[in-house]
Each structure stands twice: as structure tokens, then as C-alpha cells.
């Protein structure tokens, strides 16, 4: 599924929940940007999220899904380990000469390139390459980009070949390729989900699935919680997330 399709579905569901007749309805604050975060202290057992517009949000539990460069994770003192692959992934959308439902991938000395079908003859490109080549791919014209793409995807021996690109659609962007893993996924009053927990190479296409899986894990302790017995800030509420971060 395209990223925008998933986003629209999630936003529609949030709007639906926000409109329900509930004593504590979901509140959607958008647009909003986090400026600072203060975790729960000894005296005040609620975390405080400071927004750029001056608003403050206090909660006994802050779930950080703010990406690989998570501000909440950093300000909570939850560290990371990992390394850079010294590569960039160039992402683009192209129109192909035929509608196809097969994901194509070639492994090159500079990294893998993938042609992933979306819909109606459009495909997503994820091109892992050197940083210098990534800058070149983003700077050339759409026609030059498609020409390089077709040449790169063409096999050098008699095997089935990928559909040919006919035109690039939209802008080309890139992101740094690295492995990053949080040393812990939770602490008192804070839980990490999504890319704030881990970032991996897009080779296997598992980043989104793993991120969504991390969103699912906190449901178990929250579902068993009894408000009068087990407050959100209790240190061992998310013990499973802290002790076994590779599961789930």
C-alpha cells in the first residue's frame, strides 16, 4: 500500500473516534510540532509535552511515535545503538510501459534497486546507492532518471526483465540508510513505538511491518490495566517491552 493511503485511513479513523459521544474522546491536534518534553518526576508524576505554539499536554503515559530521530526518546534518556551503511535510498514513482503485479529487484555493487508495483501501471522505486550517486539521481532531469533506471534494471543475461519506465512522477527524495535500535523501549511514563524503536535497511521491505508491530505490543499491558490499581506511570507496567525489545 502507498504511504499516503495508510495515512488517510488512519486519519479517517482518528476523526471517527474524535467524533464519538465519549466522556474522554480522542483529541487530534494538527498541525502541531513538539518543542520540548519533560518526563515524569518524583513529585509530579505526569510527563509534559511542550508544543511550538505554547500549548502544553500532560499525561501519565506518553507514547512516542515520532520517528527515527525521536525527540521524546532522546529527552527521555532512552539511548540507541547501530551504525550507518554510508548509503542513501532514493525514492521515486515512475509510470511503466505495462501494468504488472511483480516486485523486481536487482543487486548491484553499490546496493539493491527495487521496482515495486503500486497501481494502474505506476511503480515505486527504492534505489540504494552511494551518497554521491544519490545526489546525482536527484539532480538530473526526469527523462535522464528514467533512462538510468531502465539501463540499471536491464539484465545482462537472458533472463526475464523488469517493465520499462516511461516517465518519472513527482519529486525524488532520499534518506540515509542505517541500522538503529533503541536500547530500551519503555521507562516510567514513556513507551516507544514505530521507527522510534528501530530503523532498518529497506532491502526486505519490513520496516513498516515492524513499526506497526511495535504499535501493537503496548496494547497488552494497557488492556490489562486497572486504573485504581496500576497507574500508567508504574515502572514495571511495560516490563516486557524493556526486557525483551526484540520480540513482538
From TrEMBL:
InterPro entries: FAD-bd (IPR002938), FAD/NAD-bd_sf (IPR036188), UbiH/COQ6_monooxygenase (IPR051205). This is FAD-binding domain-containing protein. One of its GO terms (cellular component) is mitochondrion. The lineage of its organism: Eukaryota, Sar, Stramenopiles, Oomycota, Saprolegniomycetes. PANTHER family: UBIQUINONE BIOSYNTHESIS MONOOXYGENASE COQ6, MITOCHONDRIAL (PTHR43876). Residues 30-212 form the FAD-binding domain. GO terms for molecular function: FAD binding.
Amino acid at each position: 500500500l502507498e504511504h499516503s493511503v495508510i495515512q488517510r485511513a488512519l486519519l479517517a479513523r482518528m476523526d471517527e473516534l474524535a467524533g464519538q459521544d465519549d466522556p474522554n474522546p480522542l483529541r487530534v491536534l494538527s498541525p502541531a510540532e513538539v518543542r520540548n518534553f519533560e518526563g515524569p518526576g518524583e513529585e509530579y508524576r505526569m510527563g509534559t509535552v511542550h508544543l511550538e505554539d505554547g500549548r502544553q499536554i500532560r499525561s501519565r503515559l506518553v507514547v512516542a511515535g515520532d520517528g527515527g530521530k525521536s525527540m521524546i526518546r532522546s529527552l527521555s534518556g532512552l539511548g540507541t545503538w547501530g551504525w550507518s551503511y554510508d548509503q542513501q535510498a532514493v525514492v521515486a514513482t515512475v509510470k511503466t510501459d505495462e501494468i504488472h503485479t511483480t516486485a523486481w529487484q536487482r543487486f548491484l555493487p553499490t546496493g539493491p534497486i527495487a521496482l515495486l508495483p503500486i497501481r494502474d501501471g505506476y511503480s515505486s522505486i527504492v534505489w540504494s546507492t552511494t551518497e554521491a550517486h544519490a545526489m546525482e539521481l536527484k539532480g538530473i532531469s526526469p527523462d535522464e532518471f528514467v533512462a538510468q533506471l531502465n539501463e540499471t534494471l536491464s539484465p545482462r543475461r537472458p533472463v526475464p526483465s523488469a517493465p520499462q519506465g516511461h516517465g518519472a512522477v513527482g519529486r525524488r527524495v532520499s534518506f540515509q540508510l542505517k541500522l538503529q535500535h533503541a536500547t530500551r523501549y519503555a521507562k516510567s511514563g514513556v513507551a516507544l513505538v514505530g521507527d522510534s524503536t528501530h530503523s532498518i535497511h529497506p532491502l526486505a521491505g519490513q520496516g513498516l511491518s515492524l513499526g506497526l508491530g511495535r504499535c501493537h505490543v503496548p496494547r497488552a499491558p494497557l488492556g490489562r490495566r486497572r486504573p485504581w490499581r496500576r497507574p500508567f506511570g508504574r515502572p514495571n507496567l511495560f516490563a516486557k517491552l524493556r526486557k525483551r525489545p526484540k520480540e513482538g
